[in-house]
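Exercise: predict the structure of this protein bound to glyoxylic acid.
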Amino acid sequence: MRQRPAILIARDVFPAVVERLREHFEVETTPPGVVWSAVEFTERLQDKDGVLTTGGERIDAALLAACPRLKIAANLAVGHNNFDLDAMTAAGVLATNAPDVLTETTADFGFALLMATARRITESEHFLRAGRWKQWSLDLFAGADIHGTTLGILGMGRIGQAIARRGAHGFGMRVIYHNRSRLDAAKEAACGARYVSRDELFAHADHVVLVLPYTPAAHHTVGAAEFALMKPGATLVNIARGGIVDEDALVAALRERRIAAAGLDVFEGEPQVNPALLTVPNVVLTPHIASATLPTRMAMAMLAAENLIGFFTTGQVRTPLNRVSSV
Ligand code: GLV
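Solution:
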């Protein structure tokens, strides 16, 4: 009898996802709370045909050379900067990600983080919890308006467009965006957004939201030069990847009130957080939870699982990132 393919699930996932994969595969799971080191991950993957990754496990040429049986890596994330796609394609390993199912949930969170940041919600809550609220005063935690202001979106994929729709149609914002390629007129009209140059975006937006993919070219692409362009009352929100923002430059800009505030869901080197960020009051920090609702995280995990199943049963996957010859 032909042996069933062997799969590693690289982090703890919902039991229903494990059960679904067990219908087709020999499955090795990862216990709750465990994050494999690169060496441990490689050891576990050496005898596997497929892997469900969560966005934190790096798949590159060195790992692929050590894991010659591997045929597919299914990322439980839309971002895939943990994959070296060229190396995977060269090794004949298919890569998939988990787009679409998280778009609206992530856009909701982008807006929540923007509101919390501009309206100083967590900063004021810390003040209240610390027992420091003694009296009402006119300017107590006075923040920035959202409605009627200009929202600038850097990176206008599906999530950027969903944030734009919320801003334009829900909050009466003027929405401007910059992206590698301009949207067609119908899409621009649907999300009420106007294309501008990158510099114009930073200079004119009252609130800048980063939703671009993290590529080598995007490393620290938002730093001192961009903060110098921004309005002094402006807000920066990052729900993309930590490495996009130069965190030291951001800390300096926040301390000097070069910009008013920032909201960060992602960090360079997460789950470690640059200690300087923890000392700045005008920043809202959340632990990479933009897509974290139970239905959406389940949908993302199931999409990754279905990609693995599709690959080994029909040779078809829903959301491929590269092209390789089929099994
Ligand atoms: C989350 O950050 C994702 O890329 O899905």
